[in-house]
Input
Amino acid sequence: MENIFTGIAAYIKGLLAGAPPWVQTLGMGLMYLVGVLAFIFLNAIYLIYLERKVSAYMQQRLGPNRLGPHGLLQPVADAVKLLGKEDIIPRGADKWIFIIAPVIIFIPAVMVYAIIPFGKGMIPVDLNIGVFYFLAVASTTTIAILMGGWGANNKYALLGSMRSVAQMVSYEIPLTFSLLGVIMLAGSLQTSQIVAAQEKVWYILLQPVAFLIYFIAATAEVNRAPFDLVEGEQEIIAGPYTEYTGMRYALFYLSEYANLVSVSALAVTLFLGGWHGPWLPSWLWFLIKVYIMIFIFMWVRWTFPRIRIDHLLSFNWKVLLPLSLANILVTGVGIKIYQLLTLGRW
Output
């Protein structure tokens, strides 16, 4: 069970052994892409079902229970419904920006998975600047949301996208700073090296404040309650998604759940020991930890009410940012004290 996926990759690599180098590189790249897309689509489809069930349990409802056993086929029915919906482009919209925004938002949602170690030896691209790559690519999501709001030529959509820019750009700063403590401890930006450094002690035990800051900032980055101000339906209908229908709307929705899985996977990689765990295969341990993180995100969403935009930004600049900077300072001092005690020098 441990080597099932690495075995498949090795078999495909063996089939391409006699081909030119560029064909081998292209073939393996396509294999990784198909694997990541399958992982994203399967997770997105059934995380929607899981979220409905979790919210129903917390609100003393039944949730989906009609289509299939325990409602398990409800996501399939939703997908068929979205495929059959009419594709409407508003008359006054900036047509090309309106059309490509859903595609652009999905691209970085897929690209960030390139540096996620799904198990021992199961990382598509082991970059030596993996964490930096993740943060850089994920930050481009803001552009697509702004394009969707601007291209729709709708006041509510534009207002929602502008709030998104303010929120996501602001919370990227403490999110990045929260990861610096982990990077200082591991001495590397390479995700595989960070996981390897947690073989004995998970970094959540050494960086609990950083983990809390990361969790709060990541909740804001993926636009989930109580920070889902991008689509505050009581105020701005659905924000930048207001004018979208059918599969264009579905791509926005799909990218939201893809981002939820990716920030959960990064949290597991940097704070929860990655694929380390006893008895079970490494990839199974990784998935278990990821789904625990996703459940906590859902738990928070269905527990706290949406907060105001001024409170949201004030909390970021006045609380999270100073706290993240203080954590970096304390971590640096702690590392130097540890070096002095163990090595006898700074």
Remarks:
- Residues 89-343 form one domain.
- The longest helix spans residues 21-58.
